[in-house]
Each structure stands twice: as C-alpha cells, then as structure tokens.
Design a protein that fits this description.
The complex is a heterodimer.
Chain A (H helix, E strand, L loop, with lengths): L3 E16 L4 E17 L3 E5 L6 H8 L7 E6 L2 E2 L5 H7 L3 E4 L13 H11 L5 H14 L16 H13 L5 E5 L7 H18 L2 E6 L2 H7 L2 E6 L2 E7 H6 L4 H9 L49 E4 L2 E3 L13
Helix pairs in contact in A: 3-4, 3-5, 4-5, 5-6
Chain B lengths: L3 E14 L2 E14 L3 E5 L6 H9 L7 E10 L2 E2 L5 H7 L4 E4 L3 H4 L6 H12 L5 H14 L5 H4 L9 H13 L5 E5 L7 H18 L2 E6 L2 H7 L2 E6 L2 E7 H6 L4 H8 L39 H5 L5 E4 L2 E3 L9 H10 L1
Parallel strand pairs in B: 3-8, 3-9, 6-7, 7-8
Antiparallel strand pairs in B: 1-2, 1-4, 4-5, 9-10, 10-12, 11-12
Helix pairs in contact in B: 4-5, 5-7, 7-8
The chains are: A alpha/beta, B alpha/beta.
C-alpha cells in the first residue's frame, strides 16, 4: 500500500442561515457533515454525487478556500487545518485546483503568459527568466504552443482553456490536484482529450488527484477509488471496480442504475428511486437517504449509520450492513 | 411503415452577422414518424438546437432567417406561415420543452396561471373552470403529486425535476402531435434524469405523441430513441436505427464519438479522443466538414462535399468511404480497437 498523502477526519462545514432584522441565526445548511477519508500517494480518488451533496464544498475545504467548521485535514504529515492564513498560502504550493468553468476561472484581462506566471510570483519561485521558461515548458506539456503566450482567454476554445487551467495548476509542481468537475463543461470529443491529458500527466509527474464529478462514467474511467456523497455525507467508499461491480449502499445502487448507458442492447435492473434530494438545511433524521430508500428499516429514520469496513477496503454507511446482522441483501 | 408526421426537406437556416453569413443549419432532411422517438445528437455548434428552433419558428430574426427548404407538418408548410398562423400551430401541433426549466417558466406567475394561459390561448371558448380541470388532469398525467396545491405555487418553490415535469405538462396540455425536447435532462441530476426519461417514454406510448429528442448524451439516446440522427457542423452526417448506430456506425465522426464516451460498465485503458475541435460555424464552405479531424481523410474530402450515401436499411452516412467500399475494413478495425 502506498503512503497516505491526505487524511481527512470528521470534516464539517455548516453555513449559517440568518433571518430577520437582527440577522439572527435560525439554522444551518449542513453542506459537509462529518466526512472522513484518506488519499494515497499517486492515486486518483473520485468523489461523485448529485448537486448539493457537498462534493465541491469538500474540495474547497481541503484547500481551505472555505474554512471548515470542524475537522482535521492532514497533508503530507502536516495538519493544514490549523495553519494560519499566511502559512496556508505557502502550503497551497503543493495543493492546486482545477475548476469546472474554464471561462470563469481565467482572468479575461491577462494574457496566458501572465496567467501562468502568476502562481510562481505568488510563491516567489524563480527569477523572471526561469519563470518564462517554466511557462513555455508547461504550455508544451499540456499541448499548447509558444505563440499562445501573448493571447487572451477569449481567443481559446473551451478545451484549450481547460488545458490552460491545468497548466496553471501545475506551475508550482504540486503533489495533489483537486479537480472540480474539470470536464463537465466540455463536449464529448474534447472531454476525452482532457481526460487523457490528465492521466498522462499523472503518470509522468507522479501526481495525486482528487477528482470531483457528477458523471459516473468519467469517474469510473479516471479513478482508482471512488467515494459517493449524499447530502453532505460520504455513504460509500471503495475501489472503483468494486463500486461498479458490487455497489452496497442503496443510494449507490440507484445512482448507478440511473446512468444512461451508450448501448441500446444493454438491459439492466433499474432501481428508479422516487422523490427529490431533501434540503440540506433540514436533512432527514437518522440516515439522510431513508426518505427515498427502498430498503428502509425502522432504525434508519432514528440512528445515523456509521461508516464501516464491510469488506477489505470497502466502506459503507448503511444499517443494512450492521456488524451484528449477518444477512446481507 | 408509419405515417410521416413531420418532414423537413433541405432546411437551411442562416445567421447574418458582422462576420458574414453563417449557415448554422445547412441542407437538413429529416422526418419524424407518428409515435416514434427520434434522437438528434451532436456537440455544441452542430446545429441541433437551431434545427428545433426552426421547426418552432423561433429563430431570432434578425440575425437569423430560414433561407431555404421546407418544414411540413401533416402536409402544411410551416416556413411559409405568417407569425399569427404560426402562433396557432405552436403549442397546439408542435410543442417544445427546453433545457433549463427555471428560465422557461415565468417567475412572477403561479404554475396554475401559466398552465391555464396555455390552455386558454388554444381553447378560447373554455371557461376558467374547465381550464383548471384540464390543468389538474395534465399535472397528474406527468406524475406530479398534490396537483391542486401545486398549481398555486410559484416556479421557485419547486425542485428542478418537478419544474421539468411542469414544462412537460405545459407542452402536452393541448395534445400536440410532435413534442420537441431540447436537452430536457441536461440540467438535472442522474436520478432525476432517469425519472424524466421514463416519464417521456411512458407518455410517448400512452399518448402516441411523436418526440424529437435533442441531446449531446449518447447514453440518453441509447435508452430512449428508436432512430438517431448525428449532426456535425450544421449537417447531418449519419442517420440510422438505434441498434445500427451503436453496433455498426459508418461515419468516422460517429465512430469516434462512440469510442470517446467513458462507459461505466468497464474501464478502458485509454480513452479514444478525436483530435482537434469543432470548427467554427461557417468556417468550412467546401469539402467534408469533419475532414480536418478525420483519420481517414483523403485528398478528395477537402475538395468535395460528400453526399449522404445509403449505408444499409434506413441507414445513411455522409462519407466518401462508403463509395469506395472500404467500409468493411474500417469497421473491422473499429471493432478490434
């Protein structure tokens, strides 16, 4: 087993809901509620879930772009959740992020050269000449050219812009990259190009990825392990093959059976779950999925299920797999 | 063979801009049969949405204009209708649902008001009570619970999936013959998407409404459609029954597209990717529009525009390879890889 690079323990983020003239706090939106996991060096951990499940918030918390309400984040042996803002800024050299919308995450008034050089200036790396060399080097790595340096973001296509976003993330030689829906805004043919690029970079530069996406096909393709989130909680975490071959949590089963497969001959048992995702400001008691779960038991609405290792490396938070109960569905 | 309900011949929709004339849709032929679900797949800029807006007579003008061809609905040519005549067709004979249900519902009116408006416009003699009863009926048909109460709600009070159900209800309220669905599930989560697709399939069976489903998602097409049209840069590049297109795709673009989608069921080592990117609309005037990205491109592909060749039963493909009978070879390669 390879080394643990990132360890997250009991991570929580509650956004206060304020109301009235006095701005009194009337409740919380539990965007991320007690999430724990580890990321090993050199792997890709996929995080999937539907909108509002807290997957993007988790990504932002790891970089401390948002301050966690509670919980511990340990990166390469250092507890980064306790660092001061100043120290954290330095630590971000090793953790970089790629965003979903390549249109919104590049400054339209800066040319590509400047956009790419910026992280180096912020982190005080190299002199002007070295920085310039690094910019050209990375442009080449992501499949762009020297003459792109003087161009502005609007002169690029979506796929090219995402390449620039990737180059920018790589400028500081990070060890961990958090990619938040990096291919969701791209067309299928371009999506494949960017996914292949990410995979090749991982091989060449020994990167570790946290890959956040709502697209189960994409996550399956790129991840070694996958975590499934629902309403702020991690409900299942296991090796990518395991998850798709034998999903244990009813939500994962429903999610997988909902994905349209590009094969008209494919017949599957469809587990269409009814209803919508409940609001995170007023989540259901007990297991948050019990309102939509076809296998609901009495305790599900009362007791919050704990994450347990059901098989080696396969974690699930569901009462159906409680240790004292041997029968599994 | 079922009756042709909607028939488009040589449709050309051009946008007149400062950069010149841009043919967003160039010489499209297609027909939708009674009770079928026809899919149009394509990436952004392929002209799939412009095709649907042309049918509805909703091309923003200026800058857009239908510059050629005809759109026949039950024999009536929609292109020549006046705005007023078109208004009677729209919603009654052809209805449309859009991608983003929040922006297509008016936030200032209740669901009930908006549904009743659609009903009363096309049935001016109905009383408000009758309209209300019809609204309740149609809400139940699309699987919305507590219909009477929901009619008093405003769009923001509903979830995304419910809003899309309301949109479908609104589209179906006058029993249209053809329903155009432009990316109806793109903004929705997968579990909700599964519900909406199931609903559309059920309604298609029960009401026998023909559906023209426009999407970029090959998975959605595989699950819902009987026939598919693949569009690229304003043209139809391939048309085939659903089984055929996935098992035996003839156009290199379709082949590449199918290979580049990650499949959830098994892991491919390396994803195939089509090199380059979609050309800007109107930038290629002569030759095959896919030639620059095609691994089989020949000299001829750049000089001449290929016609749609017959490639089998109900199967057409716009590629010179079909003429040269080299197809078998390429298909073999495709299956092997």
């Amino acid at each position: 087993m390879s080394k643990t690079l990132l360890k997250v323990d009991g991570l929580k983020k509650y956004f206060p809901i304020r109301k009235g003239v006095l701005n009194k706090q009337v409740g919380d939106v539990k965007a991320v509620d007690d999430v724990s996991f580890e990321v090993f060096e050199g792997e890709t951990l996929g995080i999937v879930g539907e909108s509002g499940c807290g997957k993007s918030t988790t990504g932002r918390l790891l970089m401390r772009l948002l301050e966690p309400t509670e919980g511990k984040i340990e990166f390469a042996g250092k507890v980064i959740s306790e660092l001061s803002n100043n120290e954290m800024r330095k630590a971000r050299r090793d953790i970089q992020m790629i965003f979903q919308d390549p249109y919104a995450s590049l400054n339209p008034r800066h040319n590509i050269g400047k956009i790419l050089e910026e992280p180096l200036i912020v982190h005080g790396m190299g002199n002007a000449k070295e920085r310039k060399k690094k910019v050209l080097e990375l442009l080449e790595i992501v499949g762009l050219n020297e003459y792109h340096v003087k161009r502005y973001p609007h002169q690029f296509s979506g796929g090219q812009r995402q390449r620039i976003g990737i180059a920018r993330a790589l400028m500081t030689n990070p060890r961990l990259i958090i990619a938040d829906e990096p291919v969701s805004a791209l067309d299928v043919s371009i999506q494949a190009q960017v996914l292949n690029l990410l995979q090749n970079l991982q091989k060449d530069l020994k990167l570790t990825y946290i890959f956040i996406s709502h697209d189960l096909g994409v996550v399956r393709h790129i991840s070694n392990r996958v975590g499934v989130m629902y309403l702020g909680k991690l409900v299942e975490l296991t090796a990518s093959e395991d998850l798709y071959a034998e999903p244990l949590h009813p939500y994962t089963q429903a999610l997988l059976s909902s994905v349209p497969v590009p094969d008209p001959t494919f017949e599957r048992e469809q587990l269409v779950i009814s209803g919508d995702i409940p609001s995170a400001s007023n989540p259901p008691s007990g297991c948050t999925f019990h309102t939509r779960c076809p296998f609901k038991k009495e305790e599900c609405s009362q007791v919050v299920p704990k994450m347990q290792e059901v098989k080696p490396g396969h974690y699930v938070a569901c009462h159906l797999y409680d240790a004292n109960q041997h029968s599994m569905i | 063979m079922r009756k042709k309900l909607l028939e488009i011949k040589g449709l050309k929709t051009t946008f007149f801009t400062d950069d010149g004339q841009i043919p967003a849709v160039d010489d499209i032929d297609l027909s939708v049969h009674e009770g079928e679900i026809l899919g149009i797949v394509g990436e952004s800029g392929s002209g799939k949405s412009v095709t649907s807006l042309s049918i509805m007579g909703l091309i923003p003008s200026p800058p857009g204009k239908i510059t050629g061809g005809e759109i026949r609905l039950d024999g009536k040519n929609l292109v020549t209708l006046s705005d007023k005549q078109m208004q009677k067709v729209r919603g009654k004979d052809v209805a449309m649902i859009f991608q983003e249900p929040m922006t297509s519902l008016n936030p200032l009116f209740t669901i009930g008001d908006q549904l009743k408006e659609a009903i009363l416009i096309h049935n001016p003699k109905w009383s408000k009570k009758e309209a209300f009863a019809r609204a309740v009926e149609i809400m139940k048909l699309v699987g919305l619970p507590r219909a009477e109460e929901l009619l008093k709600d405003y769009p923001h009070q509903l979830s995304g999936g419910m809003r899309q159900r309301v949109m479908i209800a609104m589209a179906l309220v006058c029993d249209p013959k053809v329903l155009i669905a432009d990316e109806p599930t793109t903004a929705l989560d997968v579990t909700i998407q599964a519900q909406i697709l199931q609903l559309m399939k059920d309604l298609n069976k029960r009401l026998n409404t023909a559906v023209l489903l426009i999407t970029h998602d090959l998975g959605v097409v595989a699950e819902t459609c009987e026939r598919v049209i693949v569009m690229y840069a304003g043209q139809i590049v391939e048309e085939a029954p659903i089984q055929e297109i996935f098992v035996n795709p003839k156009h290199p673009y379709t082949q590449g597209l199918i290979k580049s989608v990650p499949d959830m069921r098994y892991k491919k080592d390396n994803l195939y990717s089509i090199p380059g990117s979609v050309p800007k609309p109107g930038s290629i005037q002569v030759g095959c529009r896919f030639a620059a990205r095609c691994e089989f491109a020949m000299e001829r592909c750049i000089q001449e525009t290929p016609p749609l060749y017959e490639a089998g039963e109900q199967h057409k493909s716009r590629c010179f390879l079909l003429e040269k009978q080299e197809v078998e070879q390429h298909v073999e390669n495709f299956i092997e890889s």
